[in-house]
Amino acid sequence: MLQAKGACEDQVAIFAKEWPHGVTPSMEACQRAAVIGLSLDWFAKNMLSATAEAAYDAACTPARAAYEAACTPARAAYEAACAPALAAYQAARAPALAAYQAACATAGAAYEAACATAWAAYAAACAPARAAYEAACATALAAYQAACATALWMP
Asked: How many CB atoms lie within 10 A of CB 43?
């Protein structure tokens, strides 16, 4: 049933490991689902009625706001603490990145030149066959259109 509703493979695996024969919804099962990492939000959206989902969302809104309020300053402190290390990393990799990009540009130009030459040879080799194909199709198309025009006017 979870797969039919579009549940992710990893979520189905977690559920099947915990409840190989299924589970009857209960407070205990919901709390266990949260502990083992099942997405309660996904469950609410995909398995509950619209009314029950709205009640779930209303009940979770204050907790979600508290979570965001707690995480926002922690995220800012994390980013501030990591900023010098990130700048050092970017400075250290800049020469290697520039060398890599230059090598790729050279290789890319050589590849494009080789492909252009090969494509021109292909197009030249195919030109007579293409002309014959187009001529045959033009003749067949004219016959088809004449037949269809006749079929349209059948008194």
From this structure: 20
Of 6, 15, 5, the residue nearest 36 (C-alpha): 15
Q: Is the pTM for the entire model greater than 0.70?
A: no
Distance (Å, whole) CA 1 – CA 11: 12
Name the 3-class secondary structure at 146.
helix
Q: How many domains does the chain have?
A: 1
Q: Could you tell me the residue range of the domain that residue 126 belongs to?
A: 48-152
> So what's the pLDDT on residue 47?
87
Contact present, 7 and 42 (Cβ < 8 Å): yes
Position 22, amino acid: G
Q: How far is CA 33 from CA 15, 16, 19, 84, in A?
A: 8, 11, 10, 39
How many other CB atoms are found less than 10 A from the CB of residue 33? 20
Within a domain: residue 18? no
Mean pLDDT, range 45-50, rounded to an integer: 90
Taking residue 117's Cβ as centre, other Cβ atoms within 10 Å add up to 10
